[in-house]
């Protein structure tokens, strides 16, 4: 059966690319899609799967250890860990979690703004396609079998995939992160398309989860009427009972989650004081662990925060022996640094401007980014 892989470009005015991929992973056909094209959806698409591959610049991936048995517990744990590592409001972030491959094995978790998810789906609808799965391009790439990384050149940006590593960023920043690691660089368009097509047929993660999960097909005919009649009767006879049972179920689930979290924290942190809440103990331990790999944490938070400032770009990035991430930011207005400061504070980082100069009509600010002191 054919699988359609649709590569959505960064620029909404640029046509999307649809690849028709056979069961053996070969690209059988390629075509450009434009908004408003009434012929965009082929007749065979009703039976085939369509995977939308989106730019992963603002969809960073983290590898986290999460509970494998309960999706509700996994989501709660993921939200807590993502809040510690990435800038952004938890209320506006959509969290997607890859399927578990083992009881305690880390798995990819992607955090992306809900508004951006809606924007991607609206663009797909304008192209006349029905999306069955949605995946960021860095996780659409197949994971390498060794310790090396695959790097796909896409203009001035690089798409990177490695063991427990996946991101899309500017070429200079990707080079800093990957310095010293063996790399397989893909620069030809056909080879890049073939890799994305091969990996997207069975993506490492599908972002259409939770609030964005696909609506299952509705039953038709007499069966649908019988089901509707039964549900209406149940709701009419016992609304209070249903609401009470639902509230009790959530209460018991929340208590079980709290108890399980406390037990896991006690097992991982045997020195926790009885008066110290489990979440506070876990956060304190996490801050200590992050201090050992400060560059990765600070760089990830900075990459996620810079797109919040329109037109801003990073010109230089370095990491000092004192644990400070030093960067040069090109931007338009001085008060834009407050946006960056607030975003980094959400990731437990402090922004310290070290000087600003004006050149070519723009501001060039030297910034020091340090972990905030523990309370």
TrEMBL record:
Domain GspL cytoplasmic actin-ATPase-like per the UniProt entry, residue ranges: 44-167
Keywords carried by this UniProt record: Cell inner membrane, Cell membrane, Membrane, Protein transport, Transmembrane, Transmembrane helix, Transport
InterPro entries: ATPase_NBD, GspL_cyto_dom, GspL_pp_dom, T2SS_protein-GspL
A Pfam family: T2SSL
This protein's record includes keyword Transmembrane helix: yes
Domain GspL periplasmic: 221-369
Gene3D superfamilies: 3.30.420.380
Subcellular location: Cell inner membrane
Topology with respect to the bilayer: Single-pass membrane protein
Reported function: Inner membrane component of the type II secretion system required for the energy-dependent secretion of extracellular factors such as proteases and toxins from the periplasm.
Family: Belongs to the GSP L family.
Protein name per Swiss-Prot or TrEMBL: Type II secretion system protein L
Native organism: Luteimonas salinilitoris
Taxonomic lineage of the native organism: Bacteria, Pseudomonadati, Pseudomonadota, Gammaproteobacteria, Lysobacterales
Gene: gspL
């Amino acid at each position: 059966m054919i699988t359609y892989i649709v590569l959505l470009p960064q620029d909404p005015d640029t046509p999307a690319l649809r690849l028709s991929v056979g069961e053996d992973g070969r690209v059988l056909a390629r075509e450009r899609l434009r908004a408003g094209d009434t012929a965009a959806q082929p007749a065979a698409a009703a039976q085939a799967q369509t995977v939308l591959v989106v730019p992963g610049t603002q969809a960073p991936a983290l590898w986290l250890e999460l509970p494998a048995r309960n999706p509700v517990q996994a989501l709660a744990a993921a939200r807590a860990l993502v809040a510690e590592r990435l800038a952004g409001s938890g209320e506006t972030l959509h969290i997607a979690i890859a399927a578990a491959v083992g009881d305690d094995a880390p798995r990819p978790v992607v955090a992306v703004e809900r508004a951006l998810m809606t924007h991607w789906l609206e663009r797909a609808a304008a192209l006349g396609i029905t999306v069955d799965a949605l995946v960021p391009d860095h996780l659409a790439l197949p994971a390498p079998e060794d310790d090396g990384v695959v790097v796909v050149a896409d203009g001035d940006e690089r798409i990177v995939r490695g063991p427990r590593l996946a991101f899309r960023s500017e070429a200079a920043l990707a080079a800093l992160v990957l310095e010293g690691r063996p790399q397989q660089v893909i620069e030809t368009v056909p080879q890049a398309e073939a890799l994305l097509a091969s990996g997207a047929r069975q993506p490492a993660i599908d972002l259409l989860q939770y609030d964005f999960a696909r609506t299952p097909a509705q039953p038709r005919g007499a069966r649908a009427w019988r089901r509707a009649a039964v549900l209406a009767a149940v709701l009419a006879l016992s609304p209070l009972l249903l609401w009470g049972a639902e509230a009790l179920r959530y209460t018991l689930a929340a208590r079980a989650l709290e108890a399980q979290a406390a037990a896991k924290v006690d097992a991982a942190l045997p020195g926790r004081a009885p008066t110290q809440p489990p979440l506070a103990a876990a956060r304190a331990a996490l801050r200590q662990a992050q201090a050992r790999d400060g560059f990765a944490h600070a760089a990830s938070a900075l990459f996620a925060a810079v797109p919040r400032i329109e037109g801003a770009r990073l010109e230089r990035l370095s990491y000092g022996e004192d644990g400070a991430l030093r960067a040069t930011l090109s931007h338009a207005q001085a008060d834009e640094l407050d946006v960056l400061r607030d975003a980094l504070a959400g990731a437990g980082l402090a922004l310290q401007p070290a000087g600003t100069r004006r050149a070519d009509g723009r501001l060039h600010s030297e910034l020091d980014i340090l972990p905030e002191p523990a309370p």
